[in-house]
Amino acid sequence: MAHAGTLTINKLSKQYSVKGSPLKVLEDVSLSVAPGEFISIVGTSGCGKSTLLRLIIGLENDYQGEILLDGKQIAGTSLDRGIVFQEHRLFPWLTVEQNIGLALQNATLSEREKTRSILEHINLVGLTGFEKAYPHQLSGGMSQRVAIARGLVNRPEVLLLDEPFGALDAMTKYKLQNELKHIWETEGITMILVTHDVEEAVYLSDRVVVMEPRPGRIRRVVPVGLERPRNRTALDFVRIKEDILSDFGIEREEETLAA
Which of 8, 42, 112, 232 is most buried per CB count within 10 Å? Predict the structure, then answer.
């Protein structure tokens, strides 16, 4: 089991220059994520969700404030942070095990240890028997499983997920949400999921971070507090989901249509 990281974000702000003028993307974002916690970040397009993940993973260093992992300032990418994107980004000329193995190129492991870790994570995501398969031989859901295994194979302290199921059909999405929950429980690492799907966030998370746009800020943090496994149709589940949706005016819109 990997070590679970403690992530601390203090007064984080980020802006870009657009035609010579500053454009604020994030403003005064502060958040603490406990070791092994599952956090989801929801919000409308343009609220800076994906930008926040890019800063946590270390793809950009030009920002104000602090991003700390286990008390140390994040600087650049590192094996202690894994990421899974909406597109699986598998190399079509490599097999499942080769695609996962790419993440271990800079790992200080022997070839035997790398092979064992690859096979362990193929099993973890339920793809045993597909080690030699190529991406064109896999479904979309299977390809995302490979991407998740690649993000986990280094046993990172934090796994970041940027809309990993956004392009999948509903049935595949539900199945992979359950798989992700199982993986999180098995690996015990800290997970941060960016999603537009409020139901997905409530189903998976310990807490849901609701963001608002222009510039991106945290509107509030909603504790879920429901026992797992969760029933999507249970009254308490639906109440939390509708409470979060009300931040985006969805309930009010429905009430207007019904009037």
Answer: 42
